[in-house]
Design a protein that fits this description.
mainly alpha, 6 helices, 4 strands
Amino acid sequence: MKYAEQLKTSKWINKKSKILKRDKYTCTNCKVNDLELHVHHLYYISGNMAWDYPENALITLCIKCHKEWHKKFKIEIRKKVWCKNAKYKPNKQEKRQKKKTKKKDKIINLAKRLGLDINLEVVQEIVNSYTYSRAHYLFKKLLESGGVEQR
């Protein structure tokens, strides 16, 4: 069944009424109640019908806020949330943090392998400023020049 058809069913109309009543027939964003109101899905789950969502996944928005929302934000389409086989996909920030942590661990291990006594503040500065290969080169140069003592 197409989404537009789902919005005409009694199941959706009942769900929509429940959400509008919960939100006191007022836009949850701008607090107006004299404009046309829509019930907005915060996310979609692939394969779900419009009414197959928990109440905390639905909010009331006036027509203006609803249009603005769709201009500003991309609606997330998830796999089945409760499915054991669904793989979690980290967002960009989580990916960056994981990459930084990996790099930090590599640099700490490199310093240990080279026998360098290095504190975490220096490691963090290196992680933020250099690639791993550049850090390796700098450590070797420091050792050669005697700028850092080995353990």
